Amino acid sequence: MLVLAFDTATDLATSALLDDGRLLGERVGSARGLLDDVRVLLEDAGYTPDDIDALVVGTGPGSFTSTRIGLAVARGLGLALDVPAAGISTLAALGSQPGVFPVVDARRHEVFVEGPRAVAPDDLDLTPGTVCVGSGAVRYRSTLERKGAEVPPDDDERHVPRARLHAALAREFGPVDAIEPLYVRVPDAEASLA
Predict the structure, then answer these.
(1) Superfamily of segment(s) 2-90+160-187
(2) Of 4, 23, 126, 145, which is the most buried if we count CB atoms within 10 A?
(3) What does the alpha-carbon distance between residue 25 and residue 194 come to, in Å, rounded to a whole number?
(4) pTM of the entire predicted model
(5) Are the C-beta atoms of residues 26 and 14 closer than 8 Å to each other?
(6) From CA 165, how far away is CA 5, in angstroms rounded?
(7) d(CA 66, CA 60)
(8) pLDDT of res. 90
(9) Are the beta carbons of 10 and 62 closer than 8 angstroms?
(10) For the chain, where do the domains classified as CATH 3.30.420.40 start and end?
(11) What is the Cα 64 distance to its own chain's centre?
């Protein structure tokens, strides 16, 4: 089964093409460049969009706008190609790496963590030696390390929510329009109007 997976919930958009679980290609870019990345993945592997059997999309939590871009691309491709899809949490994908605690930057001086929930980094209750990964771990390194956590170097691969991690977690596929974003709080624009 040829699976196209992508996640746009963080500042880094990741995409991957897999054939029966075997990684054919992977890209890291921005949400606005996702369709170009998909085109390159397919071309490099010798496939066309019509060859795709299923989609896997990251559902956040993360940036409201970036998450919506990923879901819109998934819906457009899924409906146009008539293929099923699966939605996988960005936190679940990051957390699927052995021995790590996922921490995604939530802006507003908060991070998204398992639950999912948005909390101030100072309010996290971490066991000393916990390995924190993700954009929030990088941004709030000093706070997390002060609390006894370990944060790998900024360029460590474990900080990137690789689309291949999402694909590995996908078990059930269904209608792409049934996939919903994972929002933990109201969008910034809506909060500023309140």
Answers:
(1) ATPase, nucleotide binding domain (3.30.420.40)
(2) 4
(3) 44
(4) 0.94
(5) yes
(6) 9
(7) 9
(8) 98
(9) yes
(10) 2-90+160-187
(11) 12
The residues pairing with 15 across neighbouring beta strands, listed in sequence order, are 6, 27
Instruction: Report the pLDDT value the prediction gives residue 188, as an integer from 0 to 100.
Output: 56
In order along its 194 residues, the chain shows pLDDT tens digits of 999 999 999 999 999 999 999 999 999 999 999 999 999 999 999 999 999 999 999 999 999 999 999 999 999 999 999 999 999 999 999 999 999 999 999 999 999 999 999 999 999 999 999 999 999 999 999 999 999 999 999 999 999 999 999 999 999 999 999 999 999 987 655 555 55
- Any idea what DSSP says for residue 60? -
- pLDDT number for residue 83: 98
Cβ atoms 26, 162 nearer than 8 A: yes
pLDDT of residue 185: 81
Asked if residue 142 lies in contact with residue 121, where contact means CB atoms within 8 angstroms, the answer is no
Residues whose CB falls within 8 Å of the CB of residue 29, separated by 6 or more in sequence, listed in order: 12, 13, 15, 36, 37
142's CB contacts (< 8 A; 6+ apart) are: none
β-sheet bridge partners, residue 1: none
Q: Which two tokens stand for residue 112?
A: 């998204």
CA distance 69 to 107: 18
Whole-angstrom Cα distance, residue 140 to residue 23? Answer: 32
What type of residue sits at position 2? L
E strands, 20-103, in order: 22-29, 54-58, 85-88, 101-102
